[in-house]
Amino acid sequence: MPAKAGNFYFYFVKDAQSYIPENAETVVLSRDEYNELLSRDAHQQTEIQYLKHELEKLKRMIFGSKSERFIPIDSSQLNLELEGIEEKKEIESETQSITYTRNKSKNKEEAGHSRMPLPAHLPRVEHVIEPEENTAGAKKIGEEITEILEYKPGKLYVQRYIRPKYLLPEDKGIVIGQLPSLPIPRGNAGAGLLSHIIISKYVDHLPFYRQVQQFKRQGVVFAESTMNGWFSATCKLLSPLYDKLKNKILRSDYLMADETPIPVLTEDKPGATHKGYIWVYFDPLNRMALFDYRKSRSREGPTEILQNFRGKLQTDGYEAYTIFEKQNGITLLACMAHARRKFEEAKDNDKLRAEHILKLMQGLYAIERKARDAEMPHEERYELRQAESLPILKEIEIWMKDNIMKVLPKSSIGKAISYTLNLWPRLVRYADDGRCEIDNNLIENTIRPIALGRKNYLFAGSHEGAERTAMMYTFMSCCKINNIEPYAWLRDTLTRLQDTKISQIENLLPNSWTSHPPKERCTLQ
Question: Is 10 a domain residue?
Fold first, then answer.
């Protein structure tokens, strides 16, 4: 039988004397040549699917919505059932009188407006405005109060410590008042100013050079290098606290890990930036985060940091984490949100298959939301997952194994199924521990300030500067996770740290900090 391709018929022939119909537009191929042609065509189709997928991803990055929310369409809503509508008779409506009473609302003058009251903790500056008319002999019957929210830009001021010197009688020596401990010894920047500078950059994403311009408008001029020097000295003071937090978070038995790039200026790349990485480790149980800078994205960073870690480690599918699969004492968990994202990107390629999995995953997240809204303890959340999540997970696994051979490997739906199946043992482990999360969204939210900062200060000035940046993001993230006002924490910590024992330094960490100083204070060893 001939095989048709376009307007041509291909005939398999054993030799030149084989029969070929007269007046036929033919191409004579051997079986091997024909099989090679089919193989080449299949490869080209796969390549086309891959390029289409890449093009769709590029278009989505530039023009598309960043939201990954999936709302399934209820097909039953599209069935309007219009057949036979002409045959339906109109039902005569019956009239019925209904009476009821209601409270009469006040008019606009009486009701006022629905504006929220101004916060009571803000200080009030009162202005009493007397009538222009003569009120002598008049009786005061009340007053109208109008509150206007105002703002006064922050002002720099100078604290002067005046310490008189005294010569004791009988030549017993000279005495002078003890100067309080300063964040930067022999420096002229106080804890409040240093805290403002750091918070402005690492919380409000305002680079140092812009802050210099702000201070200049207030009549205070100093070089950007001076501000960098203050920042470096502050990080040196805080480094013991950073080491204490690192040791504490690595003693946890459940961590999330992720990484994000940061451009760094280096001497070996004049005119260009080095692509460094900040690795983030998040402890959702103890509400702590650790940012650690490394010069590359290789596995050396997490391998060194986690060499003594024992417990559950939840990551995305990056290959650098696979080394921990074989490490004793570490159990790897994967992120369901990353797997879900693959199927969400595959909707343009295979809408039916992608939406089927998205709907099932939506059921998994509904169970997690149910547990979160009910504030279930870990034991109850484990029981809920065993009863409701495991059947859905099993259904997803069976479906993927049935469909993996029905799709092209390089298509977006094929990649989504392959990615999820490869990580499946890690993806389902969250259901075996009520303490674990279904995804890594908590750590991704923690990393977000770095992305905002990159758009403003653009790069770190050196590898040492990137390390200091990681330290500050560590402290700022811990403040945010624990609902601590970062300026209040940092100013108090810089004021107290010089006089706090190493054994008591843990009390200054954001997750255990209180604004009251400890009773025992002595020099930091």
Answer: yes
